[in-house]
Amino acid sequence: MCIRDSPWNTADLLDSPPSRLPNFPADGWGAFMMYVGMTGNILPEDFPFHHQVVLRRPFGEGNTIFASFSPAWDPNRAPAGHRALTISTHTRLQPWWQASGDDRKVYESMKAALAESVLDAAEKIVPGLRNATQVMMTGTPVTFHRYTRRKLGWVGGFPQTSLVRPVGARFQPGIWLVGDSVFPGQSIASVALGGLRVAKQVIREA
Length: 206
Fold this sequence. Notes:
Number of helices: 6
Strand order of the largest sheet: 3-4-5-2-6
Mean pLDDT: 93
Radius of gyration: 19 Å
CATH architecture of the largest domain: 2-Layer Sandwich
Strand content: 15-25%
Shape: globular
CATH class of the largest domain: Alpha Beta
Largest sheet: 5 strands, antiparallel
Structural class: alpha+beta
C-alpha cells in the first residue's frame, strides 16, 4: 500500500505505527492562501496565468508570492467577465497556532495584516487589483489543518537543506510513503519523480 501523506499523519492511520518517527521539522512551512474573485477587464488578453513575485528577503510572509489566474475562457472557475485568482505565500506555523489558541483577535489581525502585504505584492503585477476584487477569502495553516488534517497545516515537505533530510519511502512492511515527505520532495515534478522511484522499489521487492 502507498500512502501520500506525512509520516505523522500516516502513523495516525495505523493500529500499530512505527515506534520511531522523524522529528517534526522546526523550520517547516505552512501557507497563507488568498482566493480572489475579480473582474477580468483589468487583465490584458495575453496576460500569463502564473506569476512569482519576489520583493525582498527573507522569502515568504508576503515578501514573495505565487499567483495563478484562471483562464478567461474557463466558466468553471469564474463567470464570464471575471477571473479567479489564487495567491500563496509561505508562512511559519507556530505563530498562527499560538495566536489561534491564545487570542482570536490577534489571529484575525495577523490575517488582515498579511493579506495586505500579499495584495501589495500582487499589485506589482496587477495594478488596481484591490479595486477589481469582488470576493476574497483567506486561509492560514490553521485553516489548512482543519480541511486536510495534515499535521499543523504543514505544506511542502521537508525544507530542502540536505539530500538525506526527507524520510525513507518504506514506512513499514507493506506500507510505502509517496508525496513531498520523501525524496526528492516538494513540487509536482518532484512528487511525480518520487512516486516513480517508489514504484520501482516496490516492483524490485515484489
